[in-house]
Amino acid sequence: MRLDKLLSNSGYGSRKEVKKMLKNGAVRVNDQLVKDAKKHVDPESDDITVYGAPVMYREFIYLMMNKPQGVLSATEDSRQETVVDLLDPELLRFEPFPVGRLDKDTEGLLLLTNDGQLAHQLLSPKKHVPKTYEVHVNKPIDQAALDQLEKGVDIGEGYVTKPAEASLLASENGVERLLLTITEGKFHQVKRMLKAVGHDVIYLKRLKMGDVDLDEELLPGEYRELSEHELAALQNKKTL
């Protein structure tokens, strides 16, 4: 990797700022002064310092966000706020993107990363990574409807969903709450599944993806980095 790219990705400023720092003699590679921004280095084996302090390079970031309602699951939009807009500017240099999408009016667990390979594995239909949602519907739902959801329902255009897991949580003030776990990611799938059994979704929140649960301490719009245990759990999903 080019030295200026590595330093820029590690938070030492823009490429222009890094080149100025190199010119001023601030950078050493294996204890040798280096001023050439184009020099190729190996972040795994080379000892790189800036003003005597070691450079801790990281290639990927992995974030868990409690996505709020009203925000787009996108990297940019000219008119509306996106999940990337909620991130600290220092994280933007990694160019993170949402893994999949939640509808604008849906909240809950959303992963953001710049690890394209992991994102692909988590979203691949062949991997069947489960996603669990809390669903509120506008009227009581009976066992027959739950059984239909579990067997698979026609959500339009002749597509029948794969078997799901559905269970009731509670009823309150005429609102029925249930848990629904699916292994697909069709457009508006949860809403279309409930519509197929005669119910309108009035609230939707993703609670879990694979073996990673939404951190209950994260308020809507807040995020944190994944723990090593959570990341390992997601990476293991590659072999499902």
UniProtKB/TrEMBL annotation:
This is Pseudouridine synthase. The keyword Nucleotidyltransferase does not apply. Gene3D superfamilies: Alpha-L RNA-binding motif, Pseudouridine synthase I, catalytic domain, N-terminal subdomain, RNA-binding S4 domain. Belongs to the pseudouridine synthase RsuA family. Keywords: Isomerase, RNA-binding. Its EC number is 5.4.99.-. PROSITE patterns: PSI_RSU, S4. GO terms for cellular component: cytosol. It is an enzyme of class 5 (isomerase). Pfam families: PseudoU_synth_2, S4. GO terms for biological process: enzyme-directed rRNA pseudouridine synthesis. It comes from Bacillus licheniformis (strain ATCC 14580 / DSM 13 / JCM 2505 / CCUG 7422 / NBRC 12200 / NCIMB 9375 / NCTC 10341 / NRRL NRS-1264 / Gibson 46). Residues 1-61 form the RNA-binding S4 domain. SMART domains: S4 (SM00363). The keyword Isomerase applies. InterPro entries: PsdUridine_s_RsuA/RluB/E/F_cat, PsdUridine_synth_cat_dom_sf, PsdUridine_synth_RsuA/RluA, PsdUridine_synth_RsuA/RluB/E/F, PsdUridine_synth_RsuA/RluB_CS, RsuA_PseudoU_synthase, S4_RNA-bd, S4_RNA-bd_sf. GO terms for molecular function: RNA binding; rRNA pseudouridine synthase activity.
